Amino acid sequence: MAFKAEYIWIDGTRPTAKLRSKTKIVADGAELPLWSFDGSSTNQAPGDKSDCVLKAVFTCPDPIRGRDDVLVLCEVLTNDMAPHPTNTRAACAEIAAMYAGQEAIFGIEQEYTFFKDGRPYGFPPIGFPAPQGGYYCGVGADEVHGREIVEKHMDLCLAAGLHLSGINAEVMPGQWEFQIGPVGAPRVADELWIARWLLYRIAEDFGVAATLDPKPVKGDWNGAGAHTNFSTNAMRDNYDAIITACEALGKRVSEHIAGYGAEIEHRLTGMHETAPWNAYSYSVSDRGASVRIPWQVKVDGKGYIEDRRPNANCDPYVTTRLIIETCCGALAD
Ligand code: ADP
Ligand code: MN
Ligand code: MN
Ligand code: MN
Ligand code: MN
After folding, report:
1. For residue 66, what are the contacts with CB-CB under 8 A and spacing of at least 6?
2. For the chain, where do the domains classified as CATH 3.10.20.70 start and end?
């Protein structure tokens, strides 16, 4: 007998990468082999040297196909077995291993927007729905669109064994969020990429597209982010470490903004619960700050911080690598 392995990888589309996947039939008991693909069709290689290599790095049950079938997240290698230039996971894993003693963990809030017929799901065919106000965490067919897909996606993530910690309807109609974590890097990013793949895949069955566009509707409509909650063992122990991390993030603003997702300046305008992308701030309980210290963390004198800047379309390998570099680097000094 044999099982189906869905090999999933991050392609070379830029500025925002996309997911690709293909199915391999693997004999029962066999290891998941290296597998090649046509990099000239994914912006990862020229046509005359088109073969790129997929190496399995994270495997979980395939909750859609069931049985013994699996989802296999892969790193992309060149054909001399080095990390491909589009492979951001290798550097993330390296820095995480370097600071493993600090036990960094992340909870990422992935916001996204459903689209149908070129319009956000729930928008009327022409014009706009009622202004924002009642949609966030709403209930009822007048305000909530796509819950059948969201419920299904949540069940699939749990059946796959991902650390999904919750879902909610967001501020704009058709906009939703799920959270992955808290768990270490690069695993939190592996799981987030798998959860994104499951979202695209299950929405397909409903004739709906899910998008990570950070500003899907211009004007007075909320953008989509990927708030990244973060702590180390020291931050979970004392408030000084919380402040050290917040201050350190203020010293490398441009590096972080450059790695937090394409078109971030369209979303981080200073409106719609954001801080301006070029003016760093941190503050307790403030959803208008770049970095929020949750109120409970201030009360307890320990816990975690929320970097509110990453875009929905960020690469979580890059986001978590930057935060570890900056914060664990400062905490190690
Ligand atoms: P918000 O109020 O910003 O919407 P959410 O409930 O959506 O918050 O997300 C909070 C996230 O913080 C969750 O993903 C959770 O896993 C994460 N989290 C909680 N505690 C920690 C911690 N100590 N370190 C890192 N992340 C944490
Ligand atoms: Mn072919
Ligand atoms: Mn949230
Ligand atoms: Mn949110
Ligand atoms: Mn948040």
Report:
1. none
2. 3-87
CA of 24 to the centre of ligand 5 (A): 38
Q: How many residues can be counted in the chain?
A: 333
Lining residues, ligand 1, CB within 6 Å: 105-107, 109, 165, 179, 181-182, 227, 229-231, 236, 303-304, 306
ipTM field: 0.98
Instruction: Give the span between the Cα atoms of 326 and 125, in whole angstroms.
Output: 46
Contact yes or no for 55/155 (Cβ under 8 A) = no
Location of each CATH 3.30.590.10 domain in the chain: 95-332
Which CATH superfamily is 3-87 part of? Glutamine synthetase, N-terminal domain (3.10.20.70)
The overall pTM is greater than 0.90 = yes
The answer to whether the beta carbons of residues 283 and 246 sit under 8 Å apart is: no
Segments of the chain scoring below 70 in pLDDT? none
Rounded Cα distance, 230 and 242, in Å: 10
Amino acid in the structure at residue 287: R
pLDDT digits over 182-191, tens only? 999 999 999 9
Whose atoms come closest to the Cα of 225: which ligand? 4
Q: What's the CATH code, domain 95-332? A: 3.30.590.10
Give residue 133 CA to ligand 5 midpoint distance, Å: 17
Query: Which of 229, 232, 285, 290 best tests ligand 1's pocket when mutated (most atoms within 8 Å of CB)?
Result: 229
Residue 48: the pLDDT is 85
pLDDT at position 333, please? 86
Note the ligand closest to the C-alpha atom of 169: 4
- 165 alpha carbon – ligand 1 mean position (Å): 9
